[in-house]
Task: inverse folding
């Protein structure tokens, strides 16, 4: 997660976006982070999710909705659970690609002979119900680009 957070910081700066890393190291810090975010009132919330954060999905989504804070996630499962927007890898596609590579290995191809692949399919998912709850209107130009819209 540290590498992903650094890469995100590196991209944000040139775009004029200031990120305040509130990385969750210990689940007991969640309420402290909620307090800081409530006080700072950022323009948005970016969640780089990991298994620890995933286990607190409901509390995080409830906090974001209660505080009318727009948030983007890298996994559409968060949007299906009530998050606002996600943009990230299509995991079904990635798993299919992994199965294809595993098939090659099981048929005798040496793993070292298989080139490393990066994800190629990314999806934009928007939850309009959440947008309405937090008082946010998503422009049509963004909705047209969405791969999935939850109403």
Result:
């Amino acid at each position: 997660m540290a590498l992903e957070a650094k890469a995100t910081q590196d991209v944000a700066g040139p775009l004029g976006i200031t990120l305040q890393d509130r990385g969750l190291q210990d689940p007991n810090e969640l309420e402290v982070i909620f307090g800081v975010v409530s006080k700072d009132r950022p323009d948005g919330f970016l969640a780089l999710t990991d298994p620890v954060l995933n286990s607190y999905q409901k509390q995080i989504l409830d906090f974001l909705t209660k505080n009318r804070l727009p948030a983007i996630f890298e996994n559409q499962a968060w949007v299906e659970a009530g998050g606002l927007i996600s943009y990230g890898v299509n995991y079904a596609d990635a798993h299919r690609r992994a199965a294809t590579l595993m098939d090659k290995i099981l048929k005798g191809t040496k793993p070292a002979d298989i080139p490393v692949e990066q994800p190629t399919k990314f999806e934009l998912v928007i939850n309009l119900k959440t947008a309405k709850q937090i008082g946010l209107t998503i422009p049509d130009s963004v909705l047209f680009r969405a791969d999935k819209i939850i109403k």
DSSP finds eight helices and five strands in the chain. Strands lie at 45-47, 71-73, 85-89, 122-127, 148-150.
